[in-house]
Design goal:
InterPro entries: Homeodomain-like_sf (IPR009057), MscS-like_channel (IPR052702), Tc1-like_DDE_dom (IPR038717), Transpos_IS630-like (IPR047655), WH-like_DNA-bd_sf (IPR036388). It comes from Streptomyces zagrosensis. The chain contains 15 helices and five strands. It folds into four domains: 64 residues, no CATH class; 65 residues, no CATH class; 44 residues; 126 residues, Nucleotidyltransferase, domain 5, CATH 3.30.420.10. A five-stranded mixed β-sheet has the order 3-2-1-4-5. It is extended. It is α/β, with parallel strands linked by helices. The protein starts with 14 loop residues before the first helix and ends with a helix. Helix 7 crosses helix 8. A hairpin with a 5-residue loop joins strand 2 and strand 3.
């Protein structure tokens, strides 16, 4: 004789409950509550706990739990109760602490680990949960919780690393900061920049230690880069004009970037070039003959990349006018010609203005002063 288990609690739904459960099951609430709503609907249709468990891929105990919860508390039994949890300690800053933390967080020479901890504490003082602060600063929840608690207990001293077991570090953080500050804010006497040897002599550290500190801080005192700021009062208007030509050229017109590359050395090898052979590359002599210099005038078509070019011994206004005539002959007569030029003196002489006045289809667009990089032909010259 087989023994039957306890009879499942019967689920009877009112019209309002069935409608609300149907909405929840369709996704009006979280995925977990939606699954519970579908379980109750299946139970209300007369299915056993085992059948419902198999249909939804859950355990029989799960179905029995939510069936009982619904019978006891109805709809409220399907919603998760708020968890009390441990209340996070409140963090309040004094004015001096706020000023010091802000300095640590913003100063470029502060060690990165200390700057991050300062930002965590400042953000905790503004309010919000540890989870929100962790997501905002890109750290883990435990990291925020640790430094919140450490600051509340030890204040500013709690943000420093505690002494570790083992041999103490041979290089203190103050020494690292001294190297970084000296590298960024001073020069070694008459020299232009610090070397590992000169910085080692100043600080008493080894050259390899200085190299490691610079590498970790991404400092390269031996490198220099250049920049150029245009002082053209019409900078914005000229940029819009030139860039507009590149992106939206006029109809029935061609846009040409014009410039000259001067001081090109005309060289010739002293012996004929030996051709490539199996097992041997092409060979040239190391010495050469000089045949003076030349200037390359070029007009780069921004639409198709074709180039109109001409060589001249010099690059005066006379040669530039000859090149304009060359462009006039090369471009079909039915097209307007928009020239993008830099502010070189030969491009704006009275002689050139007179020539342009006699050729109304030519329109000149000057780049801002100190901004010849906007002229696309410069890219072609660099190939």
């Amino acid at each position: 004789m087989t023994s039957r288990g306890p009879r499942a609690v019967e689920v009877v739904l009112s019209v309002e409950e069935r409608a609300k459960l149907a909405r929840w099951a369709d996704g009006a609430v979280s995925a977990r509550v939606a699954e519970r709503a579908r379980i109750i609907l299946a139970c209300a249709d007369g299915a056993s706990n085992t059948t419902v468990a198999e249909g939804f891929g859950v355990s029989t105990e799960t179905v029995r739990k939510w069936r009982s919860r619904f019978v006891d508390r109805r709809m409220a039994g399907l919603v998760d109760e708020p968890r009390s949890g441990r209340r996070k300690p409140e963090l309040v800053l004094f004015e001096a602490e706020y000023a010091e933390l802000t300095r640590w967080a913003r100063r470029a020479k502060t060690a990165q680990f200390l700057a991050l901890r300062a930002r965590i504490v400042l953000r905790c003082a503004e309010g919000g949960t540890n989870k929100e602060i962790a997501a905002e600063l890109g750290v883990s929840h435990g990291t925020v919780n640790r430094w919140r608690a450490r600051f509340i207990t030890k204040r500013l001293d709690g943000l420093s690393d505690e002494p570790r077991v083992g041999r103490p570090p041979s290089i203190l953080l103050d020494q690292v900061e001294d190297v970084i500050v000296a590298t960024l804010e001073s020069t070694p006497g008459k020299d232009t920049h610090w070397s590992r040897a000169s910085m080692a002599q100043r600080t008493g550290l080894s050259k390899s230690t200085i190299g490691r500190i610079w590498k970790k801080s991404d400092l390269k005192p031996h490198l220099q880069d250049a920049f150029k700021l245009s002082t053209d009062p019409q900078f914005v208007a000229k940029v819009i004009d030139v860039v507009g030509l590149y992106h939206h050229p006029p109809e029935k017109a061609v846009v040409l970037c014009v410039d000259e590359k001067s001081q090109i050395q005309a060289l010739d090898r002293s012996q004929p070039v030996l051709p490539m052979m199996p097992g041997m590359p092409e060979r040239r002599t190391h010495d050469y003959y000089r045949h003076g210099i030349t200037s390359l005038f070029a007009a780069f078509n921004v639409a198709d990349g074709t180039v109109i070019s001409e060589l001249h011994r010099r690059h005066r206004a006379i040669e530039f006018k000859k090149f304009l005539t060359r462009i006039d002959k090369a471009v079909p007569a039915g097209l307007d010609v928009h020239l993008v030029c830099d502010n070189y003196a030969t491009h704006n002489t009275p002689e050139i203005k007179t020539w342009l006045g006699k050729h109304p289809r030519f329109h000149v667009h000057f780049t801002p002063t100190g901004s010849s990089w906007m002229n696309q032909v410069e890219r072609w010259f660099g190939l």
